[in-house]
Amino acid sequence: MAAAQCADLAVVELLLDHGANVSAEGGMWGSALVAAAYGENQKVVELLIDRGADLHFKGGHYGNALQAACVKAGVETIDYILDHAIDLVNHRDGKYHTALIAAAYFDRTEVVSKLLEVGADFRYQGGQYRSAITAAA
């Protein structure tokens, strides 16, 4: 997972080529995919997804890869995740409970707009900040 968060595409690819479990669980982030999404590592995110990483993994600090990406990753990374698992847009887990609440809390206007565009539930209430509007304020 350290290689995934630190953007070392060559190391991640080498480990996978030698049989590393693409969906191994553990650590603060819960999985390599979540670590890569949080670490703004689009190429590593793409590699892990293309190699079969579990997009529906629940756990770690942010709950899933989409929520982690909404904290600071580029919109291209978020689009890539959504293209492979659109249902994650309203998945509830992790510190912020939803991707929309995470994006709102971190003032990610472009990401909030994207999530609303693809059907994020702005009415949902839960988690530490209770709602997207509360998180944004």
UniProtKB/TrEMBL annotation:
SMART domains: ANK. InterPro entries: Ankyrin_rpt, Ankyrin_rpt-contain_sf. ANK repeats lie at residues 1-27. It holds the Pfam family Ank. It comes from the Eukaryota. The keyword Lipid biosynthesis does not apply. Keywords: ANK repeat, Repeat. PANTHER family: ANKYRIN REPEAT AND PROTEIN KINASE DOMAIN-CONTAINING PROTEIN (PTHR24198), ANKYRIN REPEAT-CONTAINING PROTEIN-RELATED (PTHR24198:SF165). This is Ankyrin. It comes from Setomelanomma holmii.
